[in-house]
Design a protein that fits this description.
- With about 525 residues, the protein is an alpha/beta fold.
- It folds into 4 domains: about 5-140, PAS domain (Beta-Lactamase, 2-Layer Sandwich), CATH 3.30.450.20; about 145-205; about 210-380, P-loop containing nucleotide triphosphate hydrolases (Rossmann fold), CATH 3.40.50.300; about 465-510.
- It has 19 helices and 14 strands.
- The longest helix has about 60 residues, at about 145-205.
- The protein starts with a helix and ends in a 5-residue tail after the last helix.
């Protein structure tokens, strides 16, 4: 039977009997009949907190006998083993209160049964001002449940600690994996760098950005490209039409730190003078008739990359101050705007004109010329590259034949001699056009030349220059530009990218003397 239900029945019985000494025996008999059926320990206390009666389960649970229990103060049971502070506090507080259940737990070391955790319900079941009170105390042994609960909490705490350790180990493993990944990436980058280095070596030897040849002039150009590529210095590429100045610009960009971005190109000779400002610097909406929306100029698009200004000698004189400002300060305004824009652009310019002569004639600003001419690279004409003609012929014949679906396997000696003896005023571009016509007119594996080149002999007075001659000429030109200032800021050594002692040694070896 449930303890709470038993309490209610006893309370009703006590009220019916009018609990006093006359009815005490009747109540005890009812107590025996009802509460001996309750499985949990149950004890009735009088107003002095002495044991009036206890059920069989109480005696069995606490291993006490009836004679040593009834009439004893609850605190003195079992040689005061029931002297529990929390129990004393509860029982003394419950007397003046209303008839309600008071639930609590105590953990106590009982002499007969050891350490136990007991859940107690204490309730006053009857009260009249002129009569004695009675308290029923129901007891439930919850030791196993509480120990299991505590064990479970310990288990959870232990498991939580294990999970925490596992997470820490996993985090360590993750960090180690990330470190291994970084190391792998480092090795991969190193291998990529080595592969790129080998590829650049192959390009330098055979075909650097389609710059084909082994002549002294081309080798010197490639040397200068390697020397300047990784800096942000402005480069001016000089040379006749068709020599491949754009290839030099692409080679510089391909070896630069900006190679991940595309090389932007503007041909100053192909744009109308009224549109070139908008193309270079952009414009705002309504800046001029037909400007229906704002437009980004090439300088903005090329921010962080490289801008190739081809045919810079064709730039209108009125736009040259604006270009000079970008070159010097890296800032400009869009057409129709007063807002200054800052950009980081590496500039490579090219021209087939003699800009010094243009400056003398007043068609090119002198200050802009000095800003552009920091590191000039001259692409030699084809007539000074006789050793490169066989390589160029082989490259273009294969390229053109593949495009046209033909197979040209033989280039007669007479054809090669004719090509090498020609003056080539149009340089490599002219050579490519001649070879395309030859492939079109060749129906067999042998190349057949259709252009009459023998009548246009190359200038026999033009002698081939050695690498030292080209180097000497370039050093003298830079020294003239710096008024023969060898070292220091804006000196020839700084412009050439050489140590001053190295430059002086080269000057002595090449016989360069100040006039």
């Amino acid at each position: 039977m449930d303890n709470r239900q038993s309490f209610i029945e006893l309370e009703q019985t006590a009220k019916t009997l009018g609990y006093d000494k006359r009815n005490l025996q009747a109540f005890i008999e009812i107590f025996d009949n009802v509460l001996d059926s309750v499985r949990g320990p149950l004890v009735a206390l009088d107003s002095d907190l002495k044991v009036v009666k206890a059920n069989h389960s109480f005696y069995k649970t606490f291993k006490v006998d009836r004679e040593g229990t009834e009439g004893m103060l609850i605190y003195d049971l079992g040689n005061r083993q029931w002297d529990i502070p929390k129990l004393r506090e509860l029982l003394e507080d419950i007397l003046p209160q209303k008839s309600t259940f008071n639930d609590f737990e105590v953990e106590h070391n009982f002499e007969t049964i050891g350490r136990k955790i007991m859940h107690l319900n204490a309730r006053r079941i009857y009260r009249k001002p002129e009569q004695t009170q009675m308290i029923l105390l129901s007891i439930e042994d919850v030791t196993e449940r509480e120990y299991y609960k505590r064990h479970l909490e310990e288990l959870v705490e232990k498991r939580t600690a294990e999970i925490r350790v596992a997470r820490e180990e996993a985090e360590k493993g993750k960090q180690m994996a990330e470190a291994a990944l970084l190391e792998t990436k480092k090795l991969k980058d190193q291998l990529e760098a080595e592969r790129a280095y080998l590829q650049e070596e192959i390009k330098l030897e055979y075909n650097h950005e389609n710059i084909i040849g082994h002549s002294d002039g081309i080798n010197y150009v490639l040397y200068k490209v390697e020397q300047i590529a990784r800096s942000n210095t402005i480069v001016l590429v000089l040379g006749e039409t068709g020599t491949g100045k754009e290839l030099v610009a692409r080679a510089i960009h391909g070896l630069s730190l900006r190679k991940e971005r595309a090389l932007m190109k503007v041909n100053c000779a192909t744009l109308p003078s009224n549109l070139i400002e908008s193309e270079l610097f952009g414009h705002e909406k309504g800046a001029f008739t037909g400007a229906h929306s704002s437009h980004l100029g090439r300088f903005e698009v090329a921010a962080g990359a490289t801008l190739f200004l081809d045919e810079i000698g064709e730039l209108p004189l009125e736009l040259q101050p604006k270009l000079l400002r970008v070159v010097q300060d890296g800032e400009f305004e869009r057409l129709g705007s007063s807002h200054t824009i800052k950009v980081d652009v590496r500039i490579i310019a090219a021209t087939n004109r003699n800009l010094e002569e243009e400056v003398r004639r007043g068609r090119f600003r002198e200050d802009l010329w000095y800003r552009l001419n920091i590191f000039p690279i001259t692409m030699p004409p084809l007539r000074d590259r006789l050793d490169d003609i066989p390589h160029l012929v082989d490259f273009y014949v294969k390229k053109i034949s593949k495009r046209m679906g033909k197979s040209i396997e033989i280039i007669p000696t007479s054809v090669m001699n004719a090509l090498q003896n020609y003056h080539w005023p149009g340089n490599v571009r002219e050579l490519e056009n001649v070879l395309e016509r030859a492939v079109i007119n060749s129906s067999r594996p042998k190349l057949r030349l259709v252009d009459e080149l023998n009548t246009q002999k190359k200038d026999l007075s033009t002698r081939r220059k050695t690498l030292e001659a080209v180097e000497r000429e370039h050093i003298v030109r830079i020294l003239d530009q710096t008024q023969w200032k060898v070292s220091g800021r804006n000196g020839a050594a700084e412009i050439l990218g050489l140590n001053r002692s190295t430059l002086r040694a080269r000057m002595r070896k090449l016989g360069i003397l100040k006039p």
